[in-house]
Amino acid sequence: SYQRFVNCYHCFYNLQPQLTRSIYDQFISQLQESIKEEIQEVQNEGNLERLFNLLDKIVEEAKDREEPAWRPSGVPEEDIRSTMVPYLLKHRSHLRRVLREKEEENKKLTESVLMGRKRIAELQQLIQDRQQAWQ
User: Domain spans of the chain?
Assistant: First the structure.
């Protein structure tokens, strides 16, 4: 505030109050301009406008979601657990289903192999019987 400025430069203010006000006004305007330039430079360097637009887009998309957004708790184990456990449970159920399907397929193939071996044994027996009958 101007009053703080006056208190810092009290002796100068007592000699020329109007000049002190002019210096204060000029100082404030240059300070504001400098801050605006710094903000613009940071925006240009970091491409913040694009990032802010992307963030706005994410916020708009999240409005339709029913489940709460993921927020880190600060404890890595809890954060990982909260995101990975549901995924791993889902993956485990998928793997169990695939395993069941493979076990059923293997059972059918085993039955088919046993039937083939049985048919081969029957044919070998038939061949031996015909061979003995021929001799």
Answer: 1-62, 80-134
